[in-house]
Every structure is written in C-alpha cells, then in structure tokens.
What we know:
Layout: H1 6-26, H2 31-38, H3 42-49, H4 57-66, H5 72-75, H6 88-94, H7 99-120
Helix pairs in contact: 2-3
Amino acid sequence: xxxxxxxxxxxxxxxxxxxxxxxxxxxxxxxxxxxxxxxxxxxxxxxxxxxxxxxxxxxxxxxxxxxxxxxxxxxxxxxxxxxxxxxxxxxxxxxxxxxxxxxxxxxxxxxxxxxxxxxxx
Length: 121
C-alpha cells in the first residue's frame, strides 16, 4: 500500500494541533500551564497546536489526560479513512462501537499503514 502524500500527513498533524488547542482553551488552560503539566516546553505546545511539530502517541495521551479528555478526541476524524480494504470482520465489528471509538481504531489502522509503507520503502 502506498504511503499518503506529505500534504495529507501535514493536514493530519494540523488537525490534531487544532483539536489540542480547542481542548486546552475549553479547559481554560494556557499553553504555559499545559506545558508545566506535561513537561513539554511552552514553545512545543505552541508548535504542536500550529501543526509544526509532530506528536508521539504517548505524549498525545499525556496531553489528553491533562485536559481530562479521551486521547481519541484529539485524533478522531483527522484522516478521511476509507473502510475499503479493511478485513470484513474488522469492518463489521466496528459498527458496534461509538463514532469516537471507530474513528480511533480507523486512525490507528491508517497510521499503521503509514508505518508499514515507510518500513518497506
């Protein structure tokens, strides 16, 4: 499977950053306060929110915890994931779960495909 274009990956991180910013401001938290709680620098938070800095999944989970939200809320629907090509049992099982849970699994599947493509390149 081909890796998504760089623009699509950039758009993914921009969308994640926007969601972090919305969640942070909804929690009435400044970038500095979030940086102190996560151990990241304030400039890292700013860069992440602007989509200029990619974030590792464990850091995203830490940020979500500090903001009292589910990590999947930060990545849900950031990729327009096509279910074509998913094994039928996986696709059928996804229908039983909430939209947020489905989006989280689909984003994880998409991310694993990106990693597989890079490894085979």
